[in-house]
Fold each of these.
Amino acid sequence: PALSLHAHDGLLLEEVPLARIAREVGTPTWVYSAGTLRRRYRALRAALDGAGLEATIHYAAKANDSQAVLRVLRAEGAGADVVSGGELRATMAAGIPAAATVFSGVGKAPEEIRLALAEGIFQLNAESVEEVAMISAIAAGMGVRAPVALRVNPDVDAGTHAKITTGKAENKFGIAYEDAHALYAHMAALPGIRPIGIATHIGSQITAGMAAYHAAYARLAEMVRGLRAAGLPVERVDCGGGLGIPYRDEVAPAPEALAGTIKATLGGLGLPVMLEPGRWIAGPAGVLLASIVLQKQGRGRRFLVADAAMNDLLRPSLYEAWHGILPLSPARHAAPLAPADIVGPVCESGDTFARDRAMPDLPPGEFIAFLDAGAYGAVMSSTYNARPLAAEVMVDGTRFAVVRPRQTHQDLLAQQRLPEWLAP
Ligand code: LLP
């Protein structure tokens, strides 16, 4: 693991003492490990290759769209999965060509579709007859045929948190399995569409084993056979993302298990497959550093108030997500533990990172790290309570660099305008 405890320097990320970053850059600060990103990308690549799959990896930029992160993954050969024009611009700016990028999402605006087509997008994942009509009209107007895969909702339960499950019939995502064949046939008849395959994504943070994946991909394979029997062209299958990571004590499936499941279900089709992993690559590659503002002893409850809050790391408030929390100082690692609630300074009870967590005594000024914060961390931040966005740092071996300076209060005000009737 990229995190280790050094007897003198405390918690290190790769070779860099995190306390040094906290001192020099301040807190709260996100820190990403380039080495971890590379290692995890390569492990996934090796698992897919090892299963004998012809597969492309399209990193889900929504998990972490930092230019530094995207560049590290680009250098490893990653393509991208984007869900907005903004993400497409970000991945292209990091050198990931549109020709290696898939554009997913339930509501692509006409300008976003136009941008994707003008840039030569690899694949647009469409989800409804209405969207297919819109894409066809735009593409025809531009004199091109849009490469469209149909996102199918396989109606399986991925066994994950209700807010991040996507492959059940009641979710807003994808077209119902029963309607997909007819829509695919319809796409082939539209002037602006080149039907190229089918796609699915059943949820995120999947740790319940391979059963849901297996069920979903088996349904896709059956659909591909049906489409082919009807004489419809299918060039590839997009397997989505969702592979979970152990935040606490979950047993997350290994990428080899996913590769084996893809091989077992879709392998017989002789088609290339695509994967859209976000969390599995970026989650374990990042931490959020914070300082203890004060330790407050309530009646029978100890509160550790940090200078990071729900506006920085939203996952605990939004999903009751569990993140490991460690002190950076080596001395605090040896100290006795007692239960504490770790909270942020935002004016909401929901601004709580952990309850009854076994923590040492942490006086004001002590640093802590929230673990596994590389995915769905900084990207979900806001400036609630007029709290500027935290700084972002990348570590690579013995080096580190600020890859996004901390926002200033001045930055927040500079984005605002007053109507002339309120101007002084
Ligand atoms: N592909 C599609 C179409 C998706 O909707 C997603 C994630 C992914 C790929 C990447 O999934 P991953 O491999 O990262 O699980 N904010 C939530 C997670 C939302 C995931 C949304 N879709 C969280 O913090 O847990």
Amino acid sequence: MEKILEVKDLEVTFKTYGGEVKAVRGVDFHLMKGETLAIVGESGCGKSVTSNSIMRLIPSPPGKIANGSIVYKGRDITNLSDKEMRKIRGVDISMIFQDPMTALNPTLTIGDQLTEGLKQHQNITSGEAKKQALEMMKLVGIPNPDERLKQYPHQFSGGMRQRMVIAMALICDPDLLIADEPTTALDVTIQAQILDLFGKIQERTGVSIILITHDLGVVAKIADRIAVMYAGKIIEVGSKREIFYDPKHPYTQGLLNSVPRLDIEEDNLIPIDGTPPDLFSPPQGCPFTARCPFAMEVCDKVYPAPSKLSSTHKVGCWLQDERAKHVSNIAGARQ
Ligand code: SF4
Ligand code: MG
């Protein structure tokens, strides 16, 4: 399988009045063709900043890609000019956001919005653009596309609007689709339908997907692999099976405990105590130390470099690291 994206040692900072925030602190991951990678974590963990960096949508200033590289299909796109990046956005890499209303123009018909991208990037006739728009609307499951094409966004329900946004993102046939919390604004039944739709689209088009979400329940359905982010770092990555059935990082374990399950009463969910560290001055050791029930002295002092547990499973936790035994002061495990 072909590697479509490789992100290496990505660091993103934001200048604020209070100082510099290190929002993404050395993130590595890759994506294969036709694969779905979910990036999961609490709000503020850096997952949206990571995906916005790939699209080069970090407002600069105050934001900055301070280090690292983003390679798309073998081409380093980290430092492309805005002009070059515009050719990539929508055509090679497309993005959809949480709130469909902000992505749609209320004053244009659905048909005009859908064909706009096509006409901009491809030299085709209005008739051909309309034909492709209708096909795309069918693909995303919009009934009566001929009628719907003439309507405005406010005439669509929330779920139908999100289908339209997905159609717009896919109309130029991108190879990579980044979806940032695409179902968060929708009710549960519609959420499930949209997630099914992603699967169907991938089957039909072979598009690779990066799904950004705070909700592990959402990724259970469609992810092939899962990267768990915490305090600007990927602390565990693995296949869906490895993450759901054999999570090794105490934070991942905590996230899974807080996923609502049918057999557990809502009241008995176990949230993770405490809050993530301040990213103005991130800890030098494991960022989860203050919340971790297994923290040892070494955790606070030295960042646990990722340990490779299988060809797909990696975790940054001293509990999984043989070398921890040789680090001094390790005996002082907390109770
Ligand atoms: Fe907990 Fe230490 Fe592992 Fe961090 S490195 S998750 S503090 S055991
Ligand atoms: Mg976000």
